[in-house]
Amino acid sequence: MLKTNYVTIRGTKEGLILYLDDECSFSELVSELEEKLSSNYPQISEGPAVHVKVSVGNRYLSEPQKEQLISIISDQQKLVINQIESNIITKQEAENLQKEAQTATIIRVIRSGQVLEVKGNLLLLGDVNPGGTVVATGNIYILGVLRGIAHAGSEGDSEAVIAASKMEPSQLRIAEIVSRSPDTKDNESHDMECAYVGYDNKIAIERIQQMGKIRPGITNVTSFEL
C-alpha cells in the first residue's frame, strides 16, 4: 500500500514551511508529523534556532489542536513556530473583516476636545475643528475642513488615506507615521486633497485628482470627490 505524504517540509531563507494535508484525519496528520520531525530534526543543543511557518490549508483547527501542533513542533529544541496559517476563518473573524471593510457615514462637527473613532472607513460630513480628533482603522474622508487631528489606519494599515475638502490639519497620522501640520497659504482656494504614505515612508499630500496616477489601487477615494 502506497503511503500518503500528509506532511511536506520545505526549506526557505527564513526557515522552514510545514505544509499539512487538509483532507486526512487530524490523528493521521499528527502521527506523520511526529515521525518526520523526529527523524529529520533530532534533539540537538547546538546551532541556531530554525523558524517555522505551518500551513494547514483548508483545515479548521480548534484551540486544543493548535496547542497540540505547537507542542509537537516545539519539542524539537531548535524549531520555533512563527505562524500557523489557515485558509479558514471563524464566523467572528469574518464579521470583524466585514465590519472593517464598511464605511461609517457621520454628519456632525467634531469640536475641540472631542474624539470620533470608527472601525473601517469614515466618511464625515462636517468639519474637524482645532483640538478635535477623528480616528479610523481604514480610510478617512472628510467633506469639510480638517483643522484638527486625523489618524487613518489606526491598527497598522499604512495603505490607508486621509482626504478632506480643505486640508489644514494640526496633525496627520497614518498607521504609526506622523506628519506635522503642512504649510498652507491663507485664503488660497484649492481642490480636495488626499494624504497618503509615499515611497519614502513619509506622509505626502496631493490633489485628489492626482491620486489615481500615484496610487492606482485607490478607486474608492475619488468617488467622494466634490
Can you put this structure into words, describing what you see?
This protein has 226 residues and is α/β, with parallel strands linked by helices. The protein folds into two domains: 7-85, Transcription Regulator spoIIAA (2-Layer Sandwich); 94-224, 3 Solenoid (Pectate Lyase C-like), CATH 2.160.20. The protein has four helices and 15 strands. The chain has a six-stranded mixed sheet with strand order 5-7-9-11-14-15. It has a five-stranded mixed sheet with strand order 6-8-10-12-13, with no helix packed on it. A four-stranded mixed sheet has the order 1-2-3-4. Helix 1 packs parallel to helix 2. The longest helix is centred in the N-terminal third of the chain and has 15 residues, at 26-40. The radius of gyration is 25 Å and the shape is elongated. The relative contact order is 0.08. Mean pLDDT is 83; it is low at 219-226.
List descriptors.
single chain; alpha/beta; Pectate Lyase C-like; 2 domains; 4 helices; 15 strands; elongated
Give a quick rundown of the structure.
With 226 residues, the chain is an alpha/beta fold.
Would you spell out the secondary-structure blueprint of this structure?
Blueprint: E1 7-12, E2 15-20, H1 26-40, E3 50-55, H2 63-74, E4 79-85, H3 91-101, E5 103-107, E6 115-118, E7 121-125, E8 133-136, E9 140-146, E10 149-152, E11 162-167, E12 171-174, E13 177-180, E14 193-197, E15 203-207, H4 211-214
Parallel strand pairs: 2-3, 3-4, 5-7, 6-8, 7-9, 8-10, 9-11, 10-12
Antiparallel strand pairs: 1-2, 11-14, 12-13, 14-15
